[in-house]
What we know:
This protein is α/β, with parallel strands linked by helices. The chain has eight helices and nine strands. The chain has a single domain (5-175), classed as Rossmann fold, CATH 3.40.50. The strands form two sheets. It has a seven-stranded parallel sheet with strand order 4-3-2-1-5-6-7, sandwiched between helices. The relative contact order is 0.17.
Amino acid sequence: MRRKLVMVSGSGGEHCSKKAWKIGYDCGFELAKAGFIVIQGSRDGVMEAAAKGCRDAGGLSIGISPSADEKEARANRMNDYSDVVIFTGIGFARNQILCYSADAILTVGGGIGSWHEASLGYYRKIPVVAILGSGGIADQIAGKHLDERKLGKILSAKNAKDAVAIVRRLFGESDESKSPVNGKIQRSSRRSKKTKNKRRNPI
């Protein structure tokens, strides 16, 4: 069974409030607990927060970098919490790769880049969940259709835990259902300390 990838989209470090950073962290943490792979843009701000939250919960986080190599990425505020980093060398056109790799998107705060990513998710008709109170684009698009075609309403969540619960329901899961972890099926609410603390091998 293929593990699903959930993207955490949001403000870069220069625009990221403390509140948005904490919500991003909680998103990464809750997604990892639920057995999802976290995918994010490999930079600072909400992306860094989600990757750190994922790591702290024992999950796997993939960063899709706009940079061509690690040296360039370091100069562009690459975060240190991605377990796997894919260097693309295509600048912010990498948003396309992020959004077409994701099975769902959580939007936390954000500016024009997050708007672009939410729009790609909307166009693909995958779940896009905006977290209310996180600021930026998330607060502006929550509960709305992005154009007159009404391809799918941007869902709204009150916090990270609520956002992950929404995604799980849409994927046919529940809080008591079994989540795929390391190729095995375990109850996400009763993950052993050994599984929680063990770092996953990169894919």
